[in-house]
Amino acid sequence: MRINSRYAHLTCLAINKKGYNSDSKEIPEELRLFHDNYKPPPATVMKTITSQVPALDKVVRVCDFLADQNGATFSQIYQGVGLPKSSTSSLLNGMVAHGLLRQEQDKYYLGLRLYEFGNKAVEQFDIKKIALPTLTKLRDTTNLTCHLGVLEGSTPIYIAKVESPQAIVIRSWEGKRLSLHSSGLGKVLMAWLPEHELDLLLPDEEELPRFTATTITTKTELKAQLAIIRQRGWAYDDEEDSLGVRCIAVPIRNKNGKVIAAVSVSGVTFQLPDDKRDTLAREILDICQDITTRIK
Questions:
Q1: pTM to 2 decimals?
Q2: Across residues 237-251, what is the average pLDDT?
Q3: In terms of domains, do 261 and 124 share one?
Q4: How many CB atoms lie within 10 A of CB 131?
Q5: How far apart (Å, rounded) are the C-alpha atoms in residues 59 and 92?
Q6: Could you give the 3-state DSSP secondary structure of residue 20?
Q7: Helix (H) or strand (E) holding 146
Q8: Is pLDDT above 50 for 77?
Q9: Whether residues 150 and 268 fall in one domain
């Protein structure tokens, strides 16, 4: 049984994490012998990328180093990465505090926060590709500007846009950040969050910034509207973020039912009149269900 070094290293990690010992009959004989005599490969020379942010470079180098290790001690890290001993302790403590690393006794391992980031990156990369045909169909059906957005930290952000063919269009762009409490996209991305996560996103003060006469300006009122959004399944921005502009937003869920993105349809007031709002919202929900179905 021939095993390359990378596969062997992963095999030994799997054996250790599974809780087996070298006498276990569940492990094939070849792997048992290999595991008993296995020693991690020596640290390799890492490809070093230098940016204008030295602190960030150090964080990435530590992550790169630990990605090839079954845990490493403080000494192994600062020697293997080539960092000053005096500053490595503070760096590792900070990374542990942010969940980028976890510490067990005298060893450091990659933290589950990186796993979460990785999953988010994959979801957001795939969802744009998946959603674009549906956004185009939605634009063609409604003749309105359509966006795909996600929550990045505490800010909603557009990651895709399909422009309206009409003469009057909404000024927006991919990468544009929105207000959390006054945009349809922000409200629909917040609506299904657990209460403690919602409180972390919102400011400590009860009062919220006002942008127009219809902006929701208190957390109490906002939470009441989020409950309505959960009940009916979509959010509405009634000129709350920008005077004369309305928006309907619906959630996109992953296979576990978690809201991971949202689609919004935007237009000026005469393009989204009150008497057509509910009908249009149901139409948007039906079309966007296709995105959720393909993600699942």
A1: 0.60
A2: 94
A3: yes
A4: 25
A5: 9
A6: coil
A7: strand 145-152
A8: yes
A9: yes
Both structure tokens of 172:
């927006």
Other residues' Cβ atoms within 10 Å of the Cβ of residue 93: 12
CB 202 within 8 A of CB 162: no
Are residues 96 and 142 located together in one domain of the fold? no
Residue 80 and residue 120 share a domain: no
Range of the domain at 138: 116-295
CA dist 164 and 170 (Å) reads 8
The last residue of one of the domains, among 63, 90, 111, is: 111
Q: Are residues 68 and 130 in the same domain?
A: no
Domain's final residue, options 111, 136, 155: 111
Q: Is 57 exposed, middle or buried (0-12, 13-18, 19+ CB in 10 A)?
A: middle
Q: Which of 166-180, 206-220, 240-254, 257-271 has the lowest mean pLDDT?
A: 166-180
User: How many domains is the chain partitioned into structurally?
Assistant: 2
Residue whose structure tokens are 């960092």 = 83
Tokens read off for 78: 């600062």
> What band does 289 get if pLDDT is binned at 50, 70 and 90?
confident
Q: Give the H or E element holding residue 236.
A: strand 235-238
